[in-house]
Amino acid sequence: MNLNVAVFLGSKLGKDSTNLKLIKDFSEWFGSENHNLIFGGTETGLMLELVKNLSKKNSQIISIFTKNLYEESPKSKYFSEIIITNDLSSRNDLIIDKSDVFIALPGGVGTLNEILEVINKNLLNEINKKIYLINDNFFWTPLEELFKSLIKNKLLDQQKLKKNFKVCKLKELKTEFKKIYAKDTS
After folding, report:
1. Contact criterion met (CB below 8 Å) for 10 and 49
2. How far, in Å, CA of 96 to CA of 1, rounded?
């Protein structure tokens, strides 16, 4: 089954060199699965590493830009399709609408915004789509701890969160994708 998978990650490389290995390992797996990448970014930082790696695998890469970001960005040689929206809110809505599932790799404030929007829409029953935070280098552990604190303080319903939210290693993601989103061989 070919899925439209939104991947959220940083527009900067960051200082942790394990991020590059994680992106490479993720790209190897994702490219072999023949899923389509829904992408809200540019060709900088970790985002650039992802699209460079996936373009070698002939993956479909759909980038959804805001008008301002598109005008400021170098023009791509890696994207299969470019969609331009008026603002960040409509960009995020379109990414969510077009995607079957979401994966977050290390990133900054933009990545955090995208994660929280998906989680909130799930909690409000506006969507029913899973989001995975890949935590091989423990990048997302502080966010996971924040959610545990919200649950402990009865500010967040654990069962509702657990339904469509998972912090896991890349290996766990691969296993879960095989079980839940297996390729249709018929």
Report:
1. no
2. 19
Predicted confidence at residue 41, as pLDDT, reads 77
Q: Quick one: CA torsion of 63, 102, 121, 144, rounded to 10 degrees?
A: -130
| Predicted pLDDT at 109 | 96
pTM, full prediction: 0.94
| Structure-block tokens of residue 152 | 């402990």
The domain at 4-178 falls in which architecture? 3-Layer(aba) Sandwich (3.40)
**Position 77, amino acid:** K
Task: Please state the domain extents for the chain.
Answer: 4-178
Percent of the chain at pLDDT > 90 equals: 78
Residue 183 has pLDDT above 80, yes or no: no
Nearest alpha-carbon partner for 82 in 51, 112, 49, 114: 51
